[in-house]
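Notes from the 1:1 (GR / supervisor)

We went over the backlog. Supervisor wanted to see one worked example end to end before approving the batch request, so GR pasted a single chain during the call. The sequence is below; no edits were made to it. Supervisor asked that the structure be written out right there so they could see what the output format looks like.
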Amino acid sequence: HAESCHEPLVVLCGRPYHVDPLINHGIPELLAGMGVHVVTEDALPLAPHDALKNSSVLTQWAYSNRIMAAAEYVGAHERMRMVQLTSFGCGLDAISIDEVRGILKRRGQTHMLIKIDEITNLGAVKIRLRSFLETAWGRGATAVRDNVPDHEPPKLRGTLPEKIIIPWVSPLYSPLLKPLFNSYGYEADVLDPPDRASVERGLTHVNNDICYPAAIIIGDIIKAFQSGRYDPRRTAVILSQTFGQCRASNYLPLMKKALVSAGFGDVSVLSISFADQGLAMDLPLNKHEFVRKLAMGLIFADALARLYYATAARERQKGQAAGLHARYLELIAEQAATGDFDTLLRLLKAAVGEFNAVETTSAPLPMVGVVGEIYVKYNAFANNHIVHWLWGQGVEVVLPSLLGFFTQCFINDRFDRQAHLKSSAKDFVLYSILEWYVNRFINRVEACMRAFRHYRPAHDLDQLARKTARTVSLANQAGEGWLLTAEMIALLDEGVNDIVCMQPFGCLANHITGKGVSQGLKNLYPEANLLFLDMDAGHSEVNLLNRLHCMVMAAREDRIMDPKDGVMA
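Structure output shown during the call:
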């Protein structure tokens, strides 16, 4: 009716729960009272698949796809405009907002965004909406439409590069990558650890609501090119991807968009992924051999990290454990690049002997477990150097292995079959062989690790998954998924009752399997003391440290009251 009568129409879009009048503050009625027709995006005759075929982002969320398709539809109709509602801290919206803004801009339209959580009264919203409508259809307004050709997504892959740069993640694992790529003839640089400048550069070129790791990683890459050390036409960026239900699945297009914004549009963005989306490896190398070498390096790096963390908290001569760890990690990285497992095993045996020889205190130490989203858990800058701070307080830090993040795929595959979510015979055979192969390596490494004086047995992930299912469904596979809950259960089973769980602010998956399961875990483990920290660009260091001091005090009290150590009479 609006179209046939040439009357203005506003498409009001947002998350599904935004239709609730208690949540949307009566904005639909407010718009209608200003003389325009109002419909929601699901009232439009949309074909999201066709509308999003040129989208540069990973279109795997139904409501986001619907909003972006609606923007394409609205942009093609002169008498239509779009108003988008968003909730504060919604990371998925950070991706769709940028896409919607770009779609409408190319059609000569203005993007109107309202963050409903920021509304304390409707006065400011009324002024914004009146201005928006006056601009669109008021006196003197003209329908200015850009003659912009159909959008082409940013090109992620170009010609093969002369050099590859890789963002820094952790001193426990990042040193593995340079020798690995070098073994295939690629000149690779792992960037220096991030700093505050990385965050500032990132926030300049990405939506401020995107997750903290994305801002850091993207800022790191832009900072590297702005330094002048790398030629954008001869250098590529490479990122690992899981393509799971997580904002991180869009790091590739976000990175490319940010590079274009910063003036480095010639840079190719490559990916390494072991998922099924067809972007498995953007470099021409033997994928199966590469995965084998990478997995081998990861297994031994995890074992070395266990030696390091257990010793660093107890050493009398500070820095001795760090020196041993750096030396052996360099040797492990070199040997993992050759794929020589037996040499790696000999190196680990030697490392166990040297860590056992480090002079340590015999006093029992309080223990704190550190879990959370994969990047903030392992990246010292992102987690405010929490591990070194806890060591400085005389606390032993227990950190889960990184390997579990990848080996959970075997359990996910079995669960999905039992739930009739997949039925591929090829995947069944592949995952079964891979699981047997990886476990064979892990068992030999564990046999070697038993000689370590502070040895703590590794948990069987299958058994841990069954325990975890008491608290949260294994269908939770977005981000860290159920593994985050499992890591907390593993720590609690070991007697590590004080646990810090960190996630980027607005990380939906981790809020469900982290904060969301806290009461369930406390019902099963009444002695559990869980501290949840949101990490973002504006976090208060004083607030974090105050809360961590309380955690340390509780951990000390737990150790004093633990009869297993003979401390309590």
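Supervisor's comment: The radius of gyration is 26 Å.
Batch request approved.
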